[in-house]
């Protein structure tokens, strides 16, 4: 392969190689890619997903998705998940054209991978949680879709949002006492890491909090107003049969006669009027312990991805100078794309991948560097790991909410003199997060 052809292949990569000795360094928008973004970058390479997308043709329901998008998108590029197969098989809220390199922006903090984060809310009409999609009595896009007459959140394909119509009691002061909608019972799947579901729980609590405060409810600073209990210890979900869980290897076959997997679920109660940050920080490790206990008991299938997941390639130090080549996920994505390109028709795939990555780079001082270590592990480690991410490992990026999105830095505020009397009041102020 000529230098020109190598450079041409490199230019076709979704995330371009960086110049210099860090070809996998994140640049520009890459620094702000979150778990959903990385999950999509690998899922779009999945052969089964590409085939399934072509099999699901456009339908009139596709137009309903437009209200959730920040910008208009070609109707052929996004399709409504009518039969729930996209959600169940791939964890995606709607069918997206795999030719799209990046996820279209969603309104109101929505998530394209919401099915992988979705906890179960109270619903007196629901009888089971299974591999079959749950159909509400009303369309999920309508303002009053939730069957519960006083529910303050609506579930959409992309997450939770505030309801447009809620029947509030006339006496504002008795609102919370009469309906206790500040305490939210939520069923959580303990067969997977909790971080994805915790982000959804926080969203539910924030929406409910905003509604209640708007109608006169007062917040408080009690930090022990949460609970995590077994699913059978809560009457709220006693009428629901839990026949599936995301991390159980038998979920799709419903392996026993009753299909009862309720033991892998628990109920989280969070107070929407209490301090949300301290509650979520306390709940998360309790859920993680339940997940780890299930893994240790052999009940659920653990992730095959490295734990903790590396942020960058292994570092080597030469002459006292450390270097690592850049971001771990970017390296795996580039390897995945090059492997897909070369493995179909050509031999010596590993050698060709290395040539594309090293095109135009000097080999000076090659020995004992990160490049030598990286290239020695391409076949046995990195190609296999990249393929795992394509074939379902991407879901664990959403479950664990890794990598964390890098926040843009805000300019520092100018300091000013604050009297001691005000400082003392600030120190004793309760947590109102």
Query: Helix- and strand-based class?
Result: alpha+beta
How many strands, what sense, and barrel or not for the largest sheet? 4 strands, antiparallel
Separation of the first and last Cα atoms: 58 Å
Total number of strands: 12
- The low-confidence parts are 139-150, 168-179, 251-256, 409-416, 426-433
Give the integer mean of the pLDDT values.
83
| General shape | globular
Task: State the assembly state of the protein chains.
Answer: single chain
What strand line-up does the widest sheet have? 3-7-10-8
The total of helices stands at 12
Q: How big is the Rg?
A: 25 Å
- Considering DSSP H and I runs of 4 or more, what fraction of the residues is helical? 25-40%
What is the strand and helix layout of this fold?
Blueprint: H1 3-11, H2 35-43, H3 47-55, E1 78-79, H4 85-90, E2 95-96, E3 120-121, E4 128-129, E5 153-156, E6 159-162, H5 175-179, E7 183-189, H6 195-214, E8 227-230, E9 241-242, E10 265-271, H7 276-296, E11 316-318, E12 321-323, H8 328-343, H9 349-358, H10 370-376, H11 378-400, H12 420-427
Parallel strand pairs: 4-9
Antiparallel strand pairs: 1-2, 3-7, 5-6, 7-10, 8-10, 11-12
Helix pairs in contact: 2-11, 8-9, 8-11
């Amino acid at each position: 392969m000529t230098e020109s052809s190598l450079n041409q292949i490199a230019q076709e990569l979704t995330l371009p190689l960086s110049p210099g000795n860090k070809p996998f360094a994140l640049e520009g928008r890459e620094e702000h890619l979150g778990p959903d973004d990385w999950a999509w970058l690998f899922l779009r390479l999945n052969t089964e997903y590409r085939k399934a997308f072509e099999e699901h043709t456009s339908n009139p329901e596709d137009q309903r998705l437009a209200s959730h998008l920040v910008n208009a998108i070609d109707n052929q590029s996004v399709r409504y998940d009518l039969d729930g197969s996209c959600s169940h098989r791939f964890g995606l809220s709607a069918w997206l054209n795999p030719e799209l390199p990046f996820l279209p922006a969603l309104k109101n903090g929505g998530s394209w991978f919401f099915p992988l984060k979705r906890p179960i809310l109270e619903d007196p009409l629901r009888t089971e949680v299974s591999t079959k999609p749950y159909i509400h009595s009303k369309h999920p896009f309508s303002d009053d879709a939730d069957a519960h007459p006083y529910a303050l959140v609506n579930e959409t394909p992309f997450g939770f949002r505030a309801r447009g119509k809620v029947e509030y009691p006339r006496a504002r002061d008795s609102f919370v006492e009469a309906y206790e909608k500040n305490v939210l019972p939520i069923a959580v799947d303990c067969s997977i890491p909790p971080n994805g579901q915790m982000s959804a729980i926080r969203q539910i609590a924030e929406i409910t909090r905003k509604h209640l405060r708007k109608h006169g409810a007062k917040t408080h600073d009690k930090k022990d107003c949460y609970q995590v209990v077994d699913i059978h210890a809560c009457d709220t979900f006693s009428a629901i049969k839990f026949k599936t869980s995301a991390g159980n290897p038998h979920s799709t076959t419903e392996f026993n006669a009753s299909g009862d997997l309720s033991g892998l679920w628990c109920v989280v109660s969070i107070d929407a009027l209490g301090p949300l940050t301290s509650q979520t920080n306390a709940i998360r490790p309790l859920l993680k312990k339940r997940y780890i206990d299930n893994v240790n008991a052999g009940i659920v299938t653990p992730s095959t991805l490295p734990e903790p997941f590396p942020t960058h390639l292994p570092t080597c130090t030469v002459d006292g100078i450390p270097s690592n080549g850049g971001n771990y996920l970017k390296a795996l994505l580039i390897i995945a794309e090059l492997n897909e390109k070369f493995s179909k028709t050509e031999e010596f795939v590993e050698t060709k991948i290395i040539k594309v990555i090293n095109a135009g780079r000097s080999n000076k001082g090659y020995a004992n560097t990160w490049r030598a270590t990286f290239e020695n592990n391409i076949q046995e480690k990195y190609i296999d790991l990249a393929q795992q991410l394509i074939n379902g490992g991407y879901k664990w990026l959403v479950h664990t909410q890794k990598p964390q999105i890098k926040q843009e830095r805000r300019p520092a505020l100018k300091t000013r003199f604050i009297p001691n009397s005000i400082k003392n009041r600030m120190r004793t102020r309760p947590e109102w997060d």
